[in-house]
Amino acid sequence: MIILFTTLHVIVCLFLVIVVLLQSGKAADLAGAFGGMGSQTAFGPRGAATVLSKATTISAVLFMVTSLSLSVLHTRQGGGSVGPSVLDKAPAATQPVTPKAATPAPAQPAQPNGPIKMELQDESGKTVVTKEIPVPAAPAKAPAAPKK
Fold it and tell me: What does the alpha-carbon distance between residue 122 and residue 147 come to, in Å, rounded to a whole number?
């Protein structure tokens, strides 16, 4: 049944294309080339419906009917889809994605127990200057803003 409707659908499609291409446009006569619309006629320069316009209407209706019939027959026979969908082919997520927690503030560096010793060496590797810098016990807090 689907093969019959598919064959009929293809024939109707080809016929519709041919009939539409054979028709002339609205302004295909000599008066249309110069902007005249033939004001003496009731329907403009084309006149009443021709055989080609009736054939176009009939083939358009047949095209819609065969399209709807094919879609209904295909969904009833095939279960609604041609093959597996893209979502069926995608790998399943093994673990749910959780938002990351805010990164904690960087930890304060460890305070050395004693003074910091710095040495300055020359090109040959000899120690030229040695200096010890005392480390404060705790960092000073910023002064509070004055109240107004």
Answer: 53
Decide if 57 is inside a domain. yes
What's the domain count of the chain?
1
* 22 token code pair: 């054979």
Count helices and strands (H / E) in the chain: 4, 2
- Full-model pTM: 0.43
pLDDT tens digits, residue range 66-81?
Answer: 999 999 988 887 655 5
Under a CB-based contact definition with an 8 Å cutoff, are residues 21 and 15 in contact?
A: no
In a domain, 59, yes or no: yes
For 6-35, the pLDDT digits (tens) are 999 999 999 999 999 988 776 555 555 565
Four-point Cα dihedral 105, 111, 117, 121, nearest 10: -20
The range of the structural domain enclosing residue 62 comes to 1-9+52-81
Helix, strand, coil proportions of the chain in percent (round to 5)? 40, 10, 55
